[in-house]
Design a protein that fits this description.
The structure is a single chain. α7 crosses α8. By secondary structure, this protein is mainly alpha-helical. The chain is built from 11 helices and 6 strands. Strands 1-2 form a two-stranded parallel sheet.
Length: about 240
């Protein structure tokens, strides 16, 4: 209402307070709640709205999302009756930078993510990203290595324990929130490869560097060595799986 400063008008009519949740209100279809609070109007773009930013989603109500997203044939053929009933856009993934479905092609195509296209070799088999993270002098890194790490997203080696607040790192990385090992510092499975590859432990990277000796390494029973390097998993190491 544009007459809220008019004393006579305000004294003559009941005005509802704006709902704090805006268009994202979960009780928006509750008649009692709707009568008590004012909610935003529907987005003027209707079924063609592509703006999935938080501010826009809160500022406007939207039509139900079509289950086929932008792949909907009726949307692509501009069938008016369908587009007036459903919204067609690629919504933002609710997990954002913590998305665990980065290798699910259909998921990546259907949902927006804050990171670039994921590298098909992340997290364990991208040699370029490994070179980038292992270097001690970033100025000597090859251009092709740096370009690859700018073009594609990779899983952060530290996962939930990451402390890197650099904006570029946050933009280009996927931070998978692995389950925390329930034993923490008292863990007795630190020489089991599959356990280390499945749970987050204090002072151990989620994605360890690949040991150049692989399964021929003589230090595979050394917890200190295993905290830094991973090896090819053999049956004897699969205690968690068994």
């Amino acid at each position: 209402c544009k007459q809220r400063n008019d004393v006579l008008h305000m004294g003559s009519f009941i005005h509802r307070n704006p709902c704090k949740s805006g268009a994202q209100c979960k009780d928006i279809d509750n008649e009692k709640h709707f009568q008590e609070y004012e909610h935003p109007s529907y987005c003027p773009s209707g079924g063609y709205c592509q703006d999935t930013s938080d501010n826009h989603e809160k500022a406007y109500r939207h039509l139900p999302l079509c289950k086929y997203f932008q792949k909907c044939l009726e949307y692509q053929k501009h069938i008016k009756t369908h587009c007036e009933k459903f919204r067609h856009c690629n919504p933002s993934c609710k997990l954002g930078n913590y998305c665990i479905n980065f290798h699910d092609k259909q998921h990546i195509e259907n949902y927006k993510h804050p990171f670039p296209s994921p590298c098909v070799f992340t997290p364990y088999h991208c040699t370029l990203h490994e070179q980038f993270t292992m270097t001690t002098n970033i100025e000597k890194i090859l251009d092709e290595v740096e370009q690859h790490c700018l073009d594609f997203a990779h899983v952060c080696r530290f996962g939930r324990n990451c402390t890197d607040k650099d904006s570029l790192h946050i933009e280009k990385s996927i931070h998978v929130l692995r389950p925390l090992c329930p034993s923490g510092n008292e863990c007795t499975k630190l020489i089991q490869e599959d356990h280390l590859n499945s749970f987050t432990h204090p002072n151990i990277r989620d994605i360890r560097f690949l040991c150049k000796y692989a399964d021929k390494c003589y230090e595979r029973r050394n917890p200190k060595h295993l905290s830094k390097f991973r090896h090819i998993i053999t049956f004897e190491d699969s205690g968690v799986v068994r």
